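User: My instructor asked us to take a sequence, write out its structure as tokens, and then describe one feature of it. I'm not sure where to start. Here is the sequence I was given:
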Amino acid sequence: MLRYAAVMMRHRRYTIPEAARCLGITPESVLGAIRRGRLKARLKTVRVPRKIWSIAAESVEAYEVSASHRERGLKKIL
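Assistant: Let's start with the prediction itself. The structure tokens for your sequence are:
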């Protein structure tokens, strides 16, 4: 069971708000990091024509929050 849990955690994907909470930054900052290519994500079609960003857990874990974001701390998330 432990091995299965480890495999499932590797395949875990986050939405932008979930990644923002994990990283302690705003959703807008996460989207900016995706657009600049600093955070790997893919655009996933959920329902036509709705699409959402899907971010792999390993990308969130590997992402380094900038010093300015660490100094300011988490902004209010709606």
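For the description part of your assignment, you could build on this observation: The chain has five helices and three strands. Try explaining in your own words what that tells you about the chain.
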